[in-house]
Amino acid sequence: MPNRPFDELLDATIRHLEELREHGVKYVAATPQSLAELGQPVRTQAARPAGAAFVSRPSVAVPPPTPPSTPPIQAPNPPPVPALMPKKTEPVVAQPSLAIASPKKNLTRAEKEAAMAGLRQRALACRKCEHLAVARKNVVFGVGDIHSPLMFVGEAPGADEDVQGEPFVGKAGQLLTKIIQTMGLDRDRVYIANILKCRPDTPGQASGNRKPTPSEMATCLPYLLEQTDLIRPQVIVALGATAIEGLFGKSEGITRLRGRWLTFRDTPVMPTYHPAYLLRNQSLAEKRKVWEDMLAVMEKLGLPIGEKQRGYFLKA
Ligand code: URA
Q1: Which fold has domain 109-310?
Q2: Rounded CA gap, 119 and 44, in Å?
Q3: Which is deepest, 54, 81, 95, 171, by most CB within 10 Å?
């Protein structure tokens, strides 16, 4: 019986390994456990153990780069403040089973920047999804500080992003920028990227957006994996259900997941609502939920939080 998620994951892994080979990686290391798992028969959805709510992604393990000399955001990792942390228990997240030794060891800032520039060039020339490549105006790679401890991941570029070649510049993007500023940061001090680097095409329609398909997301994911491996953020904020689906392969539903820390290849991930949802639903209660998620992110990063900030969007 075909197992689509497995096949897509396998395809993404093979493509990623091919890309590594193109970039001079000759050997990959796998843990004995990974090899044992790879030797097992394919598990179907129904046979997946209880609690493994998410499909794991292939892992590229990169030792930490040398710390930047002037970190843009002070981000120690203090113990979380219970009052601001989501009260629900953390869901079990499947850990990656395949560890690939990457050559990007102990990168200096300059090496990291060069590696990201190379990755960007490859992404800009990408034609793996020919239907998207012919329809796009620009590849929307990512923007911001690649040394930042904070990374936002969205779904896919919309029309505005496609025109400008930059993620989150339309109405939802302007709201995201405001959220970042309300956290006491600037947009250029964080890194922003999407699961999909091309705008999902809408043939025959003059306007409108569509959700990326699982196959498009799996095809594009290696670029995001390389971005996260280079940036090594301390926290990823996943904006909306599709971002979660792109990262973890499957989503339980953003209403259930938001506010609860997940783990993506050792990096804490805070799922929250997509800013486009907040534009559609202007209720104070929903804004407060996103804001509580951002307060939890700030806590995790050790960012200062003022009294005024703590009280935003609380009912008077
Ligand atoms: N929505 C997204 O998810 N990403 C963008 O870049 C713009 C809108």
Answers
A1: Uracil-DNA Glycosylase, subunit E (3.40.470)
A2: 34
A3: 54
Q: Is 212 in the pocket of ligand 1 (CB under 6 A)?
A: no
Write down the pLDDT at residue 187.
98
- Ligand 1 atom with the smallest distance to the CA of 140 is 6
Residue nearest atom 7 in ligand 1 by C-alpha distance: 168
CA-nearest of 188, 179, 192 to 231 is 192
Q: What is the pLDDT of residue 81?
A: 30
d(CA 104, CA 62): 6
Does the Cβ of 161 fall within 6 Å of ligand 1? Answer: yes
The radius of gyration of the chain's CA atoms, rounded to the nearest angstrom, is: 19
| Cα 239–Cα 240–Cα 246 angle in degrees, nearest 5 | 90
Cα–Cα distance, 311 to 315 (Å, whole number): 9
Please tell me which residue, 299 or 96, carries the higher pLDDT value: 299
CA angle in degrees (0–180, nearest 5) for 296-244-166: 90
Predicted local confidence at residue 205, as pLDDT: 82
Please report, for the chain, the start and end positions of each structural domain, with discontinuous segments joined by +: 109-310
Average pLDDT, the chain: 78
157 lines ligand 1 (CB under 6 A): yes
Q: What is the pLDDT of residues 256-290, one digit of tens each?
A: 999 999 999 999 999 999 999 999 999 999 999 99
Count of residues for the chain? 316
CA of 156 to the centre of ligand 1 (A): 5
| Strands lying side by side in the sheet with 150-154 | 143-144, 191-194, 150-154, 235-239, 267-272, 262-264
Q: Are 173 and 275 in contact (CB under 8 A)?
A: yes
- Confidence band (pLDDT; 50, 70, 90) for 206? confident
Q: What is the mean pLDDT of residues 164-184?
A: 98
Q: Do 183 and 303 contact (CB within 8 A), yes or no?
A: yes
